[in-house]
Amino acid sequence: MQTLSPGQNTVLERTRLVVQLDPQVGIPGGMTGVALLLNAADKAADRRAYVGDANPEGAGGAVAFDAGNGTFRVDLGRLGPEVEKVRLGMALLGGPSTGRTMADLRAVETAVTDDLGARLLAFPLDLAGRTETAMILLDLYRRHGAWRAKAVGQGFVHGLNALGRAHGLDIVEAQDGRILVRDGRSPDDPPAPEAGDERRPPPPPGTRYSGTGFCISRDGFFLTNEHVIRDGRRFTARNNRMEAALRVAFADPINDLALLQAERAVGEPTAFRDSLHLDPGEDVVTVGYPLSGLLGSNAQVTTGAISALTGTANDSRVLQFTAPVQTGNSGGPLFDAYGLVVGIVSHKLNAEQIHRITGDIPQNVNFAVKGAVARAFLLAAGIEPPTADIGSRQSAAAIASAARDRVVQVLVEA
User: Fold this and answer.
1) Is the torsion defined by CA of 27, 28, 30, 31 positive or negative?
2) How far apart are CA 337 and CA 106, in angstroms?
3) Contact 65, 179 (CB under 8 A)
4) Where are the domains of the chain?
């Protein structure tokens, strides 16, 4: 049997599975399990992609929930090609209105057995201090023709509804206690243009690619995007001053963040802006490693401004900015005019797709995960994010010069 830690994944040798959600402290009648059948974009096609109290079977019985003992039976071999991922988790009924949080459960173990009861893997998770009321525990997903399992541990403060909305579903609790599930979009709505990022198809084993990261602790911790490291097996941090092997310490696929730890203490921490307040029009600077091998091995610097405080579909987790970015910038810091981090560069609008929909070609519509989201992620991972007050304005050259020893190229081998 294998024991997983957050962010760790493993190949599944069986396709007929039983997944047991086992909290240390139960809340009878106050908890539910949830499974979501997702496509390659981590979205539910419609309300039938939800499996739980309101719909105990999905995909013709390939995924089934037994509320009595908190188990899911999953037959991965019966899932059609449209289902790329089965995302499993749990929620506290009533959400934050009850005053309870995941911390009240103390801990939870997600255990996976085959259909004969042989234990395959376990994911124990300490919930001390966790303020969320819904949580994703385990992903079962396709890669290179095989099914894999990944330990997640990502939570949602606002409960089952927030978990659903992150995947295109509206899950609500009626006054009589029933769970109602609706598609997140009306059938009459026009298709929303998706934001294109670096979430490419899974690369063949041995493929090498890179992103950007930055040091956030003198203990050798680095922050980057989850999609940068998602398909990797080996990771290295490199800049003109250092090179060190990395391991994944914590990953959050929902907010697209990953915490990496170097094999030794390297680098000075990069400070976040203490104030969470942002204004459209503020100047920003990016420092990163785009188009590795084409633009050279040194960090590249671009400048622009914050253009909006939400992303596509009013996603409040991200902000829009105009500083040009390319493939490889993902995971790099977005600095304000005072040299403090206000975001983590994540993706840019898919210009080709938007041109097909609107006939227009968008210019420099780029997105970053907000600093507030990244700070909450670090706290959940047990890292106190470094912060600083706004001081004197700095030139882009001065910001880039101070950042070059802190920002690294994250080299990934699949």
Assistant:
1) positive
2) 42
3) no
4) 2-183, 194-414
Give Cβ neighbours of residue 135 (< 8 Å, ≥ 6 apart): 89, 90, 91, 102, 108, 153, 154, 155, 156
Torsions phi, psi of 333, nearest 5?
A: -75, 145
Q: Is the pLDDT of residue 14 over 80?
A: yes
The DSSP result for 121-133, as a single string, is EEEEEE-TT---S
Structure tokens at 143: 């890669």
Structure tokens at 246: 């990395």
Q: State both tokens at 79.
A: 């899932």
Q: Is 194-414 in the same CATH topology as 2-183?
A: no
Using an 8 Å Cβ cutoff, are 184 and 168 in contact? Answer: yes
Rounded Cα distance, 119 and 123, in Å: 12
pLDDT tens per residue across span 170-194: 888 765 677 888 775 443 333 333 3
The answer to whether residue 379 scores a pLDDT higher than 80 is: yes
pLDDT of residue 216: 95
The pLDDT tens digits of the residues spanning 242-288 come to 999 999 988 888 788 999 999 888 878 999 999 999 999 999 999 99
The closest alpha carbon to 323, from 313, 342, 35, 382, belongs to: 342
What fold is seen in the domain 194-414?
Thrombin, subunit H (2.40.10)
Residue 315 tokens, joined: 């996603």
- State the amino acid at position 306 in one-letter form: I
The topology under which CATH files domain 2-183 is: Lipoxygenase-1 (2.60.60)
